[in-house]
TrEMBL record:
Name recorded for this polypeptide: ABC transporter
Annotated ranges, domain ABC transporter: 4-235
Protein source organism: Actinophytocola xinjiangensis
MF terms in GO: ABC-type transporter activity; ATP binding; ATP hydrolysis activity
Matches recorded under InterPro entries: AAA+_ATPase, ABC_transporter-like_ATP-bd, ABC_transporter-like_CS, ABC_transpr_MalK/UgpC-like, Mo/tungstate-bd_C_term_dom, NA-bd_OB-fold, P-loop_NTPase, Transp-assoc_OB_typ2
Domain of life according to the entry: Bacteria
GO cellular component, one term: ATP-binding cassette (ABC) transporter complex, substrate-binding subunit-containing
Keywords for this protein: ATP-binding, Nucleotide-binding, Transport
One Pfam family of this chain: ABC_tran
Length: 348
């Protein structure tokens, strides 16, 4: 069993920056867990605190039920892949990947076999005899990943492990990583600033800002019901519509339209949240003029200029694009309208 438990963990740097702030977090044994957030929110510091590369200033870190707060990284039984790879320059790819097995004194044939198998899975089969200096950045990154996997630690900590790969390799490596993680039952904490990657790979996601967790949930939870406007803004390939509105007499007044709030709600100023994917043309709703149409591949993003200076985005199937200048009326699909408190930004 190798779950991770953080209780009241703060990590403060000597210059006084509180990069992780009184954070509680439980990662289950075998879970694939993503730490997601903008640059500087404390993701890497949190990962390094789990690994023992940074000391928690307060609180406790447990791995597999044992308190490791004061233990050195080497005895925490975690494998970590860094943003800067840290490969051994004088060793070949094969030797780099098999290094953890050499440390364990595994026999040579086993080392070579493990290196070859892991390398093949990450598209490195033809490169086993090269040295790191003879590899591209993305190839080096995959060697670092392969080496971490060969450590057979129960906990794998990954800091942006796919960030240097091109779009296609990234998708392949995602699938490989996810399959390997599941087959080996590795408890994995994965740091990324890429919300699409977190949504695609993780069992659960913690969305962070300023050293704290803003929302923790399944990809579906954070996509469909962002807990606040920060998360709503951060998650989704097309930004969520966040529109100033007013609830009056059980209706939501927004951009000159009166929408159903989907349940009882007191009269109050609110921010309406609707994903572009959940808006569709309807007989009644928000009316606006098409100003921009952007092709996203299978769908297109249509921008509508609406009354009260409100701009609304909606996605439509690529072959159903309305012409620029035409007038559309759109409404949210049932249950897809979210109301946020205008002062606190919290989901109501
Ligand atoms: P990124 O995605 O850019 O890597 P991050 O979310 O991983 O960002 P961290 O690297 O954990 O964020 O940084 C969190 C905060 O701590 C930032 O304000 C950063 O400037 C600060 N910080 C990071 N490392 C140090 C350090 N060694 N000394 C002092 N402050 C640091």
């Amino acid at each position: 069993m190798a779950g991770i438990e953080l209780a009241g963990v703060s990590t403060v740097y000597p210059n006084g920056v509180r990069a992780v702030d009184a954070l509680d977090l439980t990662v289950a044994d075998g879970e694939f867990f993503a730490l997601l957030g903008p640059s500087g929110c404390g993701k890497t510091t949190l990962l390094r605190t789990i690994a023992g590369l940074e000391q928690a200033s307060s609180g406790s870190v447990s791995i597999g039920g044992a308190d490791v707060t004061r233990l050195e990284p080497g005895v925490r039984k975690v494998a970590m892949v860094f943003q800067d790879y840290a490969l051994f320059p004088h060793m070949t790819v094969s030797e780099n990947i098999a290094y953890p097995l050499r440390v364990r004194r595994a026999p040579k044939p086993e080392r070579a076999e493990t290196a070859a198998r892991t390398a093949a899975g990450l598209g490195l089969a033809g490169l086993l005899e090269r040295r790191p200096a003879q590899l591209s950045g993305g190839q080096q990154q995959r060697v670092a990943l392969a080496r971490a996997m060969a450590m057979s630690a129960e906990v794998l900590l990954l800091d942006e492990p796919l960030s240097n790969l091109d779009a296609r390799l990234r998708l392949e490596a995602r699938t490989f990583l996810k399959r390997l993680q599941r087959d080996l039952g590795l408890t994995t904490v994965f740091v990324t600033h890429d919300q699409a990657e977190a949504l695609a790979m993780a069992d659960r996601i913690a969305v962070m800002s300023e050293g704290r967790i803003r929302q923790l949930g399944s990809p579906r939870d954070v996509f469909q019901r962002p807990a606040d406007t920060f998360v709503a803004n951060f998650i989704g390939s097309t930004p969520m519509n966040l529109l100033p509105a007013q609830v009056r007499n059980g209706r939501v007044e927004v951009a000159g339209a009166h929408l159903d709030p989907g349940g009882p709600h007191p009269d109050a100023p609110v921010t309406v949240g609707i994903r572009p994917e959940y808006l569709h043309e309807a007989p009644e709703g928000i009316t606006g003029t098409v100003s921009i149409v952007e092709n996203l591949g299978v769908t297109s993003l249509v921008t509508l200029e609406c009354p009260q200076d409100v701009t609304v985005g909606l996605t439509v199937p690529e072959h159903e694009e309305p012409p620029v200048g035409s007038v559309l009326t759109v409404a949210p699909r049932p249950g897809r309208l979210l109301l946020y408190d205008s002062d606190t930004g919290q989901l109501t």
